[in-house]
Amino acid sequence: MRKATCFNMISFFLVIFVDINNAQAQKYQIPEKEDKPTTAQFTGNIFKPAIIKVTDSLIEQLKVPAGFTISKFADNLGKPRILAMDSAGHIYVSDREAGSVTLLSDKNRDGVAEEKKIVAKIQQAHGLVVHQQKLFITSVTDVFVSDIKPDGTLSTPKLIIRDLPDGGQHPNRTIAIGPDNLLYVSIGSTCNACNEPNKINATMLRCNLDGTNQTVFAKGLRNTIGYAWHPQTKELWGMDHGIDWLGDDEQKEEVNLLKENGNYGWPYIFGEGKFNPANRPAGDTTYEQYLKLSTLPSLIYDAHAAPMQWAFYTGNSFPATFRNDAFIAMHGSWNRAEPKGYKLVHLEFENGKPTKFNDFLTGFLVDDNKSIFGRPVGVIMLNDGSLLVSEDLGGMVYRISKN
Questions:
Q1: pLDDT tens readout for residues 108-132
Q2: SS3 287
Q3: What is the pTM of this model?
Q4: Reduced to 3 states, what is the DSSP secondary structure of residue 362?
């Protein structure tokens, strides 16, 4: 095991004399028009924990709430990302770097996958969703669908969408199928913050299950990887990745209620209605006017924590207080001095609305937060009510169950 005794850290000041606005902070001068100078100053940091190899002793020190147990479900998976499961309990995990989808089998239901088998090879395969015994798979520009055979293997993937835009900075497409029996595809922005030339970028697309009739469902979403429909209200909720280089505590990650034709502000408006210093709305539109067109987040979370897959809990093995709440994987930060994320969080809902975040799985950061052995990405609920959590640093999938 490589001993982690050092880490990378860069601190600097970023001064922007470009279009910005209002009284959101004294360090900003952001006029509504360009006939006055715009100024802003930020402190930017980079901190990337040292990477150490996962060991049994490190796994033993992972923390979950009292009454729960975490155990190894599968290992040596490369860089496992998004998880999906069919009605028969076949578990699928994508590996974008390897361009593969792997079937994990726990036939004896002992909480450990005794078989791993690659069932699809698609360049940059990432998003997965199961619907009516078909597995939908998305790469950066394409969406495929395969029939799931009785043994969990797949038919030859059929291409149903071939014209999604190139990924740029955010190529990690994710897909889901809504209560309306339509396919949703999250398209991240090509940049940190910019005026996108392609109106498809930074959106949520919606289309028929065969890929036809693609429309923009919602826009102004920088990179919404995790999203799902509330089991009771059937409303679509997601978490958007905030803009980098606005400081350690900006832009915070956003919990959004995603509605048809909604505009969520990126790249001009963020957080509780703040104006982005680096990007002015196009044409004669002012920041204040664009703010009125934008839907603000329902809840915010630590900046740069990088929310990933989202799963609502509908099982019975966890206490009833968890039912209809959400679990969200936080991949972890790099653009701040003190690391945030690197965990699984529990998002409480009351009367169908998000109210509070709680840590649920922690402990991947070690050595006084200077080293790391896991970065959570995927989360799903199994038929027995337990959770699976993937992480793409140590190549693991973990199972969290009630004692």
A1: 999 999 999 999 999 999 999 999 9
A2: helix
A3: 0.92
A4: strand
